[in-house]
């Protein structure tokens, strides 16, 4: 019978943390899913709520309460009203929208009792759980904020954990409590409104559970709770309504041992277990069975077979926090919030045991490298059986491991020609799964030898391994830096295209090298043809103007002389004069000298700059590194960005066929970042005067354009809403009065 197996893939950093020392905490209260599967809502332990886009690790919005106030529980997203909800100072509910800048000016309501948690429910309004056990829907609570809230818990009873479970027919609120060493589970049902109290079984040497988790499957609620001795228990209770008599008394909640984790000596302090499916549990804060003490891991365990499926060592202190959304695990450790994708596959018991053996073998011979999260395995190829391990498959696996080890020895000792030949043979003959496991290790070995021996540089092998798409910067952090040192710009281009997790410092290092190298030196580099095709299309020269002096998309800059700029300087091609757009439409495009549309950089340099523009980054992390650019480099880059934007404003852009090209928003974001980082220096630099003046006039003209469009918005709306006459023949005239 098949069972699920799990695999971890290469992770990346979503944001930094500001941990607290006393008590030691991560600084994050919770992570909630936002409006789609690529946005999460992160609430810190003090006063801030931030929305992050997971795919590019970029903050999309942040809100902070005033000094002296604090956020009591994680903020949530209300999918019904498209609003955010948070609780401040235990009893003040705040509701705001994405466009609201100041959270203090948003809607707020003070309730009559302290709130423990607000839970978001997909396609349903949030549920509010009070500290004394009362439960209300958010909408009904905001209708009468001062309504009395019942006290469910006893005087010395406190809530330790809560969640919501949505079944096929109803919504349930679950929360655990503790009273004098005893632990209880409450199940609140709606329609009809019933509350059932269960008591968890007590053990002779069991203290309070470290973590709880609940899932719904097969018409039952499965509760997982983990004790400091490494025992993970499961309790199953029906999701249907209990009998009326049973609902009034405390019911015993039987349990079964689901998983016994090896923890070594002592007990766990900061750890958590989270179910991924019916057969797998993600565990954080426990050492790997074969690793030494003092190391913390994120592990995926198979509860059916009691086997370890995958593991990842986590640097820094573990806080026992893990969340799971849409195939991604969010883990806090050290000063980092990491996102680690995972995937479950079908496998047999023999394969599960073999997976554990292979994991230990890899860890004993070197660092365990997992495939990049860019390329996840897509299942087995047709015709291959995974249920039976034969002697032939064992011999084949042994031969593959030996081949990889032999290739590693060749990389460490062989000449460049032999290394390139062996790597090419390996990539041709190896299967996809084997390549995913080996490519990262091979690149690390190649980079290490290149560092030790400057004369050794197998460029062909590095390009071939990068083109497999199984790499990212976290797997081989020295590859892109090595390519910059060797001025291997083709490899740089491949890394910029394929690596989604390039640090901002490396991005700026690439930008600085690209801007500083002469165009003539780049002309001999064989870059990707598609990127050069885009640059050729952009630099074919100025677009011919219409004979009647028409404009391109309503944009036609006037000559520089119209604004007192004087005649064109002889070196204008090196430093293009800015474009004056304040008199849009007053001059025909044929009056614009062709020199104004010249590209300030060569084709190859422009292609590389386009790759930098499309890399993912965080504004706050990128700004400090941008200040390392020289004034000459900043001016050149701004001129190129201005050139791109002007080309994008023309009708010729949709005719360009390119697989990768920077978006208009990316261009404008980089312009803003450069101005923020170097504005004072640019204002004082004489050579930047014309450029800043041109940018200012361009923005001014855009504001004027949008102002004029706003004036006719009402008229356009009337045209849109006007009902067309149905009694029209082949020719008709309709008069529309606009007010």
TrEMBL record:
The organism of origin for this protein: Electrophorus voltai
Domain Nucleolar protein 11 C-terminal, residue spans: 431-739
Protein name in the entry: Nucleolar protein 11
Keyword set includes Translocase: no
InterPro entries: NOL11 (IPR042859), Nol11_C (IPR048897), NOL11_N (IPR012584), WD40/YVTN_repeat-like_dom_sf (IPR015943), WD40_repeat_dom_sf (IPR036322)
Nucleolar protein 11 N-terminal domain segment(s): 5-342
Keyword annotations: Activator, Nucleus, rRNA processing, Transcription, Transcription regulation
Molecular function per GO: RNA binding
Subcellular location: Nucleus, Nucleolus
């Amino acid at each position: 019978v098949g069972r699920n197996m799990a695999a971890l893939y290469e992770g990346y950093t979503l944001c930094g943390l500001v941990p607290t020392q006393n008590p030691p905490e991560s600084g994050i209260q919770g992570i909630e899913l936002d409006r789609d599967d690529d946005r999460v809502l992160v609430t810190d332990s003090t006063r801030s709520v931030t929305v992050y886009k997971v795919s590019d690790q970029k903050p999309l919005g942040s809100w902070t309460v005033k000094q002296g106030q604090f956020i009591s529980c994680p903020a949530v997203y209300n999918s019904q009203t498209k609003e955010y909800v948070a609780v401040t100072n235990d009893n003040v509910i705040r509701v705001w929208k994405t466009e609201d800048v100041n959270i203090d000016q948003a809607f707020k309501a003070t309730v009559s009792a302290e709130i423990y948690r607000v839970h978001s429910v997909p396609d349903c309004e949030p549920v509010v759980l009070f500290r004394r056990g009362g439960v209300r829907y958010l909408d009904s609570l905001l209708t009468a904020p001062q309504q009395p809230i019942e006290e469910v818990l006893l005087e010395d009873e406190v809530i330790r954990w809560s969640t919501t479970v949505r079944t096929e027919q109803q919504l349930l609120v679950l929360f655990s409590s503790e009273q004098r060493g005893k632990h209880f589970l409450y199940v609140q049902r709606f329609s009809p409104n019933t509350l059932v109290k269960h008591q968890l079984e007590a053990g002779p040497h069991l203290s309070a559970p470290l973590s709880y988790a609940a899932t719904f499957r097969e018409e039952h609620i499965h509760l997982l709770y983990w004790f400091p001795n490494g025992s993970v228990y499961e309790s199953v209770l029906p999701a249907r309504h209990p009998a009326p008599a049973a609902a009034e008394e405390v019911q015993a909640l039987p349990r079964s041992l689901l998983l016994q984790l090896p923890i070594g000596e002592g007990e766990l302090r900061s750890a958590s277990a989270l179910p991924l499916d019916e057969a797998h549990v993600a565990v954080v804060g426990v050492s790997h069975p074969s690793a030494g003490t003092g190391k913390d891991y994120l592990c995926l365990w198979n509860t059916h077979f009691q086997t370890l499926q995958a593991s990842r060592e986590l640097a820094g202190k573990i806080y026992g926090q893990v969340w799971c959304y849409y195939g991604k695990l969010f883990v806090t450790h050290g000063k980092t919030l990491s996102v680690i994708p995972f995937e479950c596959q079908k496998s047999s018991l023999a394969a599960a045991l073999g997976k554990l053996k292979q994991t230990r073998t890899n860890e004993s011979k070197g660092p365990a490298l997992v495939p990049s999260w860019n390329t996840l395995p897509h299942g087995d190829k047709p015709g291959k059986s995974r249920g039976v391990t034969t002697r032939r498959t064992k011999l084949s696996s042994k031969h593959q491991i030996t081949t990889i080890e032999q290739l590693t020895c060749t990389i460490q000792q062989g000449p460049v020609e032999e290394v390139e030949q062996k790597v090419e043979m390996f990539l041709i003959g190896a299967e996809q799964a084997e390549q995913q496991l080996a490519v990262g290790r091979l690149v690390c070995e190649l980079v290490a030898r290149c560092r030790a021996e400057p004369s050794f540089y197998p460029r062909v092998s590095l390009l071939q391994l990068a083109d497999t798409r199984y790499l990212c910067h976290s797997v081989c952090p020295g590859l892109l830096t090595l390519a910059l040192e060797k001025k291997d710009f083709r490899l740089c281009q491949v890394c910029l295209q394929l690596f989604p997790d390039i640090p901002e410092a490396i991005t700026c290092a690439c930008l600085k090298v690209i801007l500083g190298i002469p165009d003539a030196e780049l002309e001999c580099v064989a870059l990707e043809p598609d990127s050069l095709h885009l640059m050729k299309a952009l630099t074919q020269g100025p677009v011919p103007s219409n004979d009647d002096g028409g404009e391109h998309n309503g944009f036609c800059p006037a000559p520089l002389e119209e604004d007192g700029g004087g005649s064109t300087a002889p070196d204008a091609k090196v430093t293009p004069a800015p474009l004056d757009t304040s008199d849009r439409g007053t001059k025909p495009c044929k009056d614009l000298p062709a020199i104004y549309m010249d590209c300030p950089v060569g084709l190859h340099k422009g292609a590389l700059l386009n790759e930098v523009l499309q890399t993912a980054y965080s504004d706050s992390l990128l700004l400090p590194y941008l200040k390392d650019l020289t004034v000459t480099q900043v001016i050149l880059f701004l001129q190129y960005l201005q050139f791109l934007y002007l080309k994008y404003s023309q009708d010729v852009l949709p005719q360009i066929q390119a697989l990768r090209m920077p978006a208009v928003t990316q261009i404008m974001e980089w312009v803003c970042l450069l101005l923020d980082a170097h504005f004072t220096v640019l204002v004082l630099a004489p050579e930047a005067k014309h450029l800043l003046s041109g940018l200012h006039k361009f923005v001014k003209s855009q504001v004027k354009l949008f102002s004029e469009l706003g004036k006719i918005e009402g008229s356009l709306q009337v045209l849109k809403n006007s009902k067309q006459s149905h009694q029209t023949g082949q020719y008709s005239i309709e008069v529309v009065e606009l007010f």
